[in-house]
Specification:
Blueprint (H helix, E strand, L loop, with lengths): L3 E6 L12 E5 H11 L2 E3 L2 H33 L2 E6 L6 E6 L1 H10 L9 E2 L3 E3 L1 E10 L2 E11 L1 H4 L1
Parallel strand pairs: 4-9
Antiparallel strand pairs: 1-2, 1-3, 5-7, 6-8, 8-9
Length: about 160
């Protein structure tokens, strides 16, 4: 049997550990796979200290992003968008209101939210809808969107 060595993982590895952790693996696994692929580095004092520093910086950055997202979430929760669309019979829209439409309406209000972070069911009729925006991990904001008939189609 080969002897085990300690390595520092440079990224998350399923069933082994998270990035920055010092793990004990077999020498062959480290020598033949982890080290050549750049997945791990030998667990020297310098490498451990460097990963600890990077982890600290990442935590500070995540905390800053979270605090900014919480501030934006409070402002976004107070927003009510009104979108005018042409309608057919029974208040049904020609087409639908998409996340792209919501993204541009939010930009007009001064919010920069990527449409991929907006969660809404298909809006295909007039009415008021709740839209959820995921601003950061564990930070969401819900705002109202009211779809009204366009003045041109109402006549």
């Amino acid at each position: 049997m080969g002897k085990a060595i300690h390595v520092v993982l440079s990224r998350d590895v399923v069933k082994l550990g998270k990035g920055g952790e010092v793990v004990k693996v077999s020498a062959g696994f480290a020598r033949n796979f982890l080290l050549p692929q750049g997945i791990a580095l030998p667990a020297s004092e310098g490498n451990v200290a460097r990963f600890a520093h990077q982890k600290k910086l990442a935590a500070e950055k995540a905390a800053k992003l979270r605090s900014e997202a919480l501030g934006s979430a409070a402002k976004l929760a107070a927003v009510e968008l009104t979108i005018a669309r042409s309608v057919g019979g029974e208040g049904k829209l020609y087409g639908s209101v998409t996340t792209r439409d919501l993204e541009s309406a939010l930009k007009e209000k001064g919010f920069n939210v990527d449409r991929k972070k907006l969660s809404v069911d298909n809006i295909r009729a007039l009415g008021t809808y709740q839209v959820t925006a995921k601003l950061a991990p564990e930070v969401t904001a819900t705002f109202k969107v009211t779809v009204v008939a366009d003045a041109k189609s109402a006549s």
